[in-house]
Amino acid sequence: MPKTFANFSVNHLPKVEEMMLGFVRKYAEEATLAQAMTYSLEAGGKRIRPMLLLATLDMLKQPIEDAHYQVAGALEMIHTYSLIHDDLPAMDNDDLRRGKPTNHKVYGEGMAILAGDGLLTEAFHLVTQANIEPDVKVAIMQELALHAGSAGMIGGQVGDIEAENQEITLDHLASIHRRKTGALIMFAVNSAALLAQADEATRRHLSHYAEQFGIAFQIKDDILDVIGDEAVIGKKVGSDEALNKSTYTSILGMEAAKEKLNEHIHDALASLEAIKVNQPEVDTALLVELINKLR
Amino acid sequence: MPKTFANFSVNHLPKVEEMMLGFVRKYAEEATLAQAMTYSLEAGGKRIRPMLLLATLDMLKQPIEDAHYQVAGALEMIHTYSLIHDDLPAMDNDDLRRGKPTNHKVYGEGMAILAGDGLLTEAFHLVTQANIEPDVKVAIMQELALHAGSAGMIGGQVGDIEAENQEITLDHLASIHRRKTGALIMFAVNSAALLAQADEATRRHLSHYAEQFGIAFQIKDDILDVIGDEAVIGKKVGSDEALNKSTYTSILGMEAAKEKLNEHIHDALASLEAIKVNQPEVDTALLVELINKLR
Questions:
Q1: Does A288 touch chain B (CB under 8 A)?
Q2: In order of start, what are the domains of chain A with their CATH numbers?
Q3: What are the chain B neighbours of A129 within 8 Å (beta carbons)?
Q4: What is the pLDDT of residue B1?
Q5: Given pLDDT bands bounded at 50, 70 and 90, which one contains residue B239?
Q6: What is the residue-averaged pLDDT of chain B?
Q7: What is the predicted pLDDT for the residue at A235?
Q8: Which co-factor is required (chains A, B) (predicted)?
Q9: Phi and psi at residue B148, to the nearest 5°
Q10: What is the pLDDT of residues A107-145, one digit of tens each?
Q11: Largest Cα–Cα distance of chain A, in whole Å?
Q12: What DSSP designation does B196 have?
């Protein structure tokens, strides 16, 4: 039976979710806080980041262990906190996320801020408890902080806010999204390479794959914001335009954006082929399927 | 010349501040984000947490090194992020902090939320770079996440918000403040004991000192909120009453609160004496002076 992402997900995603939810419930002493934190974790979503991490480990022939679910769960917790804070009235002011009321709509703004702070802090806490060699664990936490922090995701979010109501260049847009969405996707792949202690060449090809993945992911997101189905994307169509945000489609136009998306997918696939040149036995099927989903 | 806290501070505090500010400036890629993060770090304050950490290391005969400034700086960055978020309109809605406009008053709510997120994330990032044995470093990051997270400071802040406009018992109040203010004070002392690899008995006595310190610190804060000098405390007197918050003075009355403060200081001093029973050569002068400052 060929390996498919659907099968892989069925096996592994529930364990990532158990790991996150169990950990949050164990340490959140106040009932309301635990509810606010788990509400957004349970709101689902594609779980693309943790699954990308686990699929990369699988490609690198690592049997998936609890420690991997812990790092994958920490990554999804960081992603989830960023959504809670981004949705706040002081930022994107969204009422709906993944088809459900946003965290602050249910728990109030103060609690949503604290639930986000809690998820961010507990993400690092979760990694400290994973059964990983201390030096590798420190390297992973360093990579996580670098990509989630002010040189990564947070810097990208600031850049995004500051670019509202402005005409920006394609390079500027790319720099924002390399950090805002690209950084955590990069962490997903890089941390798997660290955990598997992959060789230098493989790490380089994987990083290139992740970089292309991040850009393709954002272009697709921008396209769906124009032509998507609200029931599928779980939020209002046209929200970028409403916030007067520059996007790949607003700068390039729809057709050129679609072409650019295909180019980045093509580049990502080429990186996987490059890994196979030296290691023909490697099974890249999952990572191929994941990037092709963005078409 | 006897060792005084003033001399100790003059030697070490500038290095903690350099470490924090240099690190934040290095990684915050967006200029506004860097400004918002450093604005609150530079607003000063008593720096009681990092100095308690360094004073404990000094008592344990550790020469103070860069790694220690890094952990102390990370602790102050976590404390600072918590102040930025607590001051937001959705929480305590404070316009002034340490006599200066609060972060969101200067940079707006969205940026203040992100500056807080950035300081929290970069705090962990800073510790990952410290020159500490990987297993000790992981232990310190675990201790930091535990005390700053939902079982610690964040849980305490949630408890505090939920107790507004309610009559609560002294035990409930103590449970809130053991986490809200006590947890980071506990981390200051415990992380120093981890860094110095202190023996079990010394750690226990130090933990007891930190616990008493945390309670005494909060009682003093509550007393100053009633009878303090606005110019000295840097915020409006009477803000607890305005928010209808239960405090040690509102529950016990001023005289009994002062008495309780003295009891906890006495207990903290007894813990230091207990360390000297087995190690008469230990110089507890700085920790004695620090707790006596709360009288």
A1: no
A2: 12-292 (1.10.600.10)
A3: 142
A4: 61
A5: confident
A6: 94
A7: 67
A8: Mg(2+)
A9: -85, -15
A10: 999 999 999 999 999 999 999 999 999 999 999 999 999
A11: 54
A12: T
Mutate to test the interface with A, among B84, B85, B150 (most CBs of A within 10 A): B150
B148 part of contact set with chain A, CB < 8 Å: yes
What was the pLDDT predicted at A110?
Answer: 97
Which of A138, A154, A179 has the CB atom closest to B114's CB atom? A154
pLDDT digits (tens, 9 = 90+) for A167-181: 899 999 999 999 999
Q: Which residues of B touch A23 (CB under 8 A)?
A: none
B182 touches chain A (CB under 8 A): no
CB atoms closer than 10 angstroms to residue B269: 17
The pLDDT-based confidence of B104 (bands split at 50, 70, 90) is very high
**Does any CB of chain A come closer than 8 Å to the CB of residue B75?**
no
Question: How many helical (H) and strand (E) elements, i.e. helices and strands, does chain B have?
Answer: 16, 2
**Chain B residues whose beta carbon lies within 8 Å of the beta carbon of residue A150:** 24, 27-30, 33-34, 37, 118, 121-122
Within chain A, which residues score under 70 in pLDDT?
Answer: 1, 231-235
Residues 243-272 of A with CB under 8 A from B: none
Structure confidence at residue B235 (pLDDT): 67
Cα–Cα dist B69/B13, whole Å: 9
pLDDT computed for residue A73 by the predictor: 98
Secondary element (H or E) of residue A96: strand A96-97
Q: What pLDDT score does A3 carry? A: 83
Angle at CA A192, nearest 5°, toward A189 and A194?
110
Which residue is listed with tokens 């009994």? B256
Report yes or no: B154 and B148 within 8 Å, Cβ to Cβ. Answer: yes
Is residue B113 less than 8 Å (CB to CB) from chain A? yes
**Residue B96 three-state SS:** strand
Tell me the CA distances in angstroms from B243 to A159, A242, B251, one per residue in order.
36, 37, 15
Locate B1 and state its tokens. Answer: 């010349």
Cβ pair A4, A289 in contact under 8 A: yes
Of A24, A145, A155, which is closest to B29 when you measure between CB atoms?
Answer: A155
Mean pLDDT of the residues in chain A:
94
A100-101 vs B96-97, strand pairing mode: unpaired
CB pairs under 8 A between A and B: 161
Rounded CA-CA distance A237/A251 in Å is: 18
Q: In the prediction, which pLDDT does A244 show?
A: 80
